[in-house]
């Protein structure tokens, strides 16, 4: 059962926009004592923009330098078939689980969302983390659908990034055993009963994230919010701004971001 702070790693690049393995190692070194798991190639890792080579290299580097922490590889691809192929690659690379969003489709039905995860579980025998968000996929998963998905074999957690603290609380209170992780720093105080947190601030201040989980007071939430504003975590290009801070700290070698694929 996963719990605590899991870090959605940014993807360090070298000057040729290849994954900078040495920077990946330093980044993991900087946070590994304070996190319960490593989540590369998700939104903070620019997962939806990565080429297959960049994705593979980042996941492989994370596994190589994991320091014994579980590696949960993000998969953000538009179609179910693509997700299945990427999940097979993740299994070959030795990850502990895959973290999967819904297909990229604004008008998708809840039955189609369930079928997406059902097909993935049938095709690849690997533990599955659900990623509930709308910024990339254009849709979110309703509670009733989530409960159907949670009943599938091998579902080990959910990154709940709908942006609704009310929905998060409803998921926590529902009848299931899947650990629920809040995906928004500013909602930690309102997201009562979650098993943990997964958000970009963990790349910079994992101890602060842990403190908020242990003792979620209004004062600590105010500190979290101010810290996020200082580092640009609430901005649309948060991954770029987090990289800039890590570069200033000399944790990573460049603050380059992945170019959008056309």
From TrEMBL:
<dbReference type="InterPro" id="IPR013785">
    <property type="entry name" value="Aldolase_TIM"/>
</dbReference>
<protein>
    <submittedName>
        <fullName>4-hydroxy-tetrahydrodipicolinate synthase</fullName>
        <ecNumber>4.3.3.7</ecNumber>
    </submittedName>
</protein>
<dbReference type="GO" id="GO:0008840">
    <property type="term" value="F:4-hydroxy-tetrahydrodipicolinate synthase activity"/>
</dbReference>
<keyword id="KW-0456">Lyase</keyword>
<dbReference type="Pfam" id="PF00701">
    <property type="entry name" value="DHDPS"/>
</dbReference>
<comment type="similarity">
    <text>Belongs to the DapA family.</text>
</comment>
<dbReference type="InterPro" id="IPR002220">
    <property type="entry name" value="DapA-like"/>
</dbReference>
């Amino acid at each position: 059962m996963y719990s605590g702070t899991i870090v959605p790693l940014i993807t360090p690049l070298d000057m040729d926009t290849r994954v900078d393995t040495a920077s990946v190692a330093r980044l993991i070194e900087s946070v590994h004592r304070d996190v319960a798991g490593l989540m590369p190639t998700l939104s903070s890792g620019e997962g939806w923009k990565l080429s297959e080579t960049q994705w593979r290299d980042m996941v492989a580097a994370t596994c190589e330098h994991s320091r014994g922490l579980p590696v949960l590889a993000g998969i953000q691809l538009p179609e179910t078939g693509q997700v299945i192929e990427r999940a097979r690659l993740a299994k070959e690379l030795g990850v502990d689980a895959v973290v999967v969003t819904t297909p990229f489709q604004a008008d998708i039905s809840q039955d189609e969302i369930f079928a997406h995860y059902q097909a993935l579980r049938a095709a690849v025998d690997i533990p599955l983390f659900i990623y509930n968000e709308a910024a990339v996929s254009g849709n979110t998963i309703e509670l009733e659908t989530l409960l159907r998905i949670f009943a599938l074999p091998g579902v080990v957690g959910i990154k709940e990034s709908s942006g609704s603290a009310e929905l998060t609380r409803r998921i926590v209170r529902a009848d299931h055993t899947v650990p629920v992780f809040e995906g928004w720093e500013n909602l930690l105080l309102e997201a009562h009963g979650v098993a943990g947190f997964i958000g970009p601030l963990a790349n910079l201040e994992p101890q602060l994230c842990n403190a908020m989980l242990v003792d979620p007071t209004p004062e600590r939430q105010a500190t979290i919010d101010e810290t996020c504003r200082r580092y640009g975590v609430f901005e649309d290009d948060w991954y770029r701004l987090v990289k800039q801070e890590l570069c200033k700290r000399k944790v990573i070698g460049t603050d380059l971001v992945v170019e959008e694929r056309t």
